[in-house]
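Listing 4. Sequential folding, example run.
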Amino acid sequence: RVATIGDYDSDLAKVSIDDRLIPVRVQLTEESRSDLARISALRVPTATGGSVPLNAVADISVAEGPSVVNRLNRERVATIGANLPPGVVLGQATARFNEIVATVDLPASVRTAESGDAEIQGELFASFANAMLLALLLMLGVLILLFGSVIQPFTILLSLPLAIGGVAAALIITGSAISMPVLIGILMLMGIVTKNAILLVDGALQYLREGLSVDEALMKAGPRRLRPILMTSAAMAIGMVPTAIGKGVGSEFRAPMAIAVIGGVITSTFLTLLVVPVVFAAMERLGFKRAQKKDEELVPPAPPVVEEQQPGRAA
């Protein structure tokens, strides 16, 4: 290295000129650096203080190597990048790349890690999971405060998984993949789907407070709240249709989000009308049985009845 490209900058001798330190780099001439025979004849010092020719301790040949060695956390890094072809999303490309890497026999000291857009996507999925969990907790807290009960808010939150099937079906039918716009659409569905369950549960609770039974409250609340549920859900689904089929700049970003919302709204609307009343009735009966059992425990037992003896009569 010293003979061909010179020593490291920190080890170079320096000359002070006009209060400036000028590094002095010493190396072979251009002709000598391209002559393997001269490089092989270079003398290198030994441990005993002598010297031997370089070809006695090394094989001299012309080869290619990295011009720059990049490091991350003090480890050498080799970056492999590619442009995505039309119709292929980042998630599909990353999965395919991992499949190919699994078939390659890499050395034990080599490991792969995502970087660039793939790394950002991994962080996005982790952040999305945290956002979903936080949103569920906040929604649960608000519903408990509004309804004054812990049982029925869980009935409302049970409607959230009903939209996942519709999202998956819509993505499969249209051939779309899970991406950041789809995650944004799922986050939007959290408010849209719970709205239908809130309308139905709130209507049933109003009839329960009027003295009706659980079955009668559901039979009256269902038809009454069916119209606003269908109107709001249809308005949301129809409003997303132009975005789902739209063309132009940015359509590849907006279309998957609209497709996810449409599929989730359609399935959740119909399944909510079937599943939520059943769960609501089960929760109300379970809460009624617990309250009844608690009241029985609070009622003190009746005192024993003692019969009075009549005078003149033997006991």
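-- end of first protein; second protein begins --
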Amino acid sequence: IRTHVDVLLGDEPLRGIHALIAVREQVRDLVDLEIVALPGPDIPDAAIEAALDAGADTLGGAPHIAEDPIADLDRLLAIAEKHDVPIDLHTDESLDGAITLGAYAAQTGLMAERGYARNLSAGHCVRLGTMAIAERDAVIAAVVEAGIGIIANPITNLYLQGWEHGHSVPRGLTAARALLDAGARFAAGADNVRDPFNPVGRSDALETASLLVTAGHLTLDEAYAAVSTGARDVMGLPVAGPTPGAAADFLAVRAGSLAEVIAEASPERIVIHAGSLVARSTLTVELAAPAIGVAA
């Protein structure tokens, strides 16, 4: 699980970070919890650096909401380079407005020339789905060259975007098809589950895959890859699964086909983490017997 944790204003800017670090230790045998420090544009550099020093794994942020998006992007990238940590930014999470993804790609390219070699990712990227095709494709080409992984968050993107449109409401999704066709690293997650940003969701990767099919027009194979192999790639994790040589992390779902897995998302599952059984769920169904008439 990759979780973005706010770096806060006030006297205890790291209280969320400290809480999740404690949780990370408590569940370390059951799940790998990656903590992304998430500062807003108004958070001082010192608090951000303190979050990384305290044990946050990755640096996040949302430069597109800053008064000067590129300046905030530059300062976040400089901090990540200074501390040599991976980067996962909330990026251009709107149907119009600021576009920072191209600058992100350009800047991290320069960082790579200076020796920075950490994993890069950008979440949401909704604006990419509303750009003119030529402009969009140029940004995607820069993203592919920079090696930035793109993370769609369909349940939250669809919920938050488009409220201001009275008709012909646009999809609040990144340009999934164009990204895949260009060979971009592509993943999908949930982001928010029953909180102020999204009142629904069940923290289920199969729900995310289903939404990618329905709203993103991906194939079943593409949608499942985005929440499995693609997600691990974008998160910088080793290949996993029930195959020799792979990390022993995998999910077994009772179903007869991938279509059934995604469409029904059966709760009957087995979860293996680091070679150990960490969860097993079963389903019991009781049906009333139909009344069968007897001919006289």
